[in-house]
Amino acid sequence: MKFKEKALKPRNIFLVLSITVILVLTFISMVNLGQTYVMIDSTSKEYKASEIRIEDSNKGIVKINEIRTKKENIYYFTYVTFQSLKKGETTITVKYPDEASPLTHRLAVNSLGMIFEGEAHLFNTSNSFKVLFPSTILIILIITIYLCMKFREKRKNGEFSYSMVAIGGAILYCIGSIV
Predict the structure, then answer these.
(1) Where are the alpha helices (H) located in the chain, listed in sequence order?
(2) pTM of the model
(3) What average pLDDT does this structure show over 35-40?
């Protein structure tokens, strides 16, 4: 018994290649963005950046790029930007002149150089997860276009079957996910 060989359609090749490229670029972007971390603290009163003292328990893991203070409505925020240097863990202590107890933050740097606060999982990084939402939307959009082309082909060929209904449902689900 011989099986009939089907040639790959260009749209199938495009689907696989485009999603692969998007996933690779997403990973690279997440690693690059994750190498910087912005720690945010709120305080009871306004301080100048030069008044804030930051101590690092394990020098050489992260370095401080910038310290900014900002008043938003009635709140005062301190933004400290860190850059990863090497793999390891450190405890950052933020001391304000008039505050009795300093604030502590545990930072960890993984082997890719991504900085995490607390437990080392993706949503504890301040920058790297920001690329996930646009990438996911782009992948869903590509899949929706692919499914629309497949639906149109089935309709054109008169293949009215359960698979066509399933494709139509998947299209509606993808459109609902995007919106």
Answers:
(1) 10-34, 132-157, 162-178
(2) 0.73
(3) 87
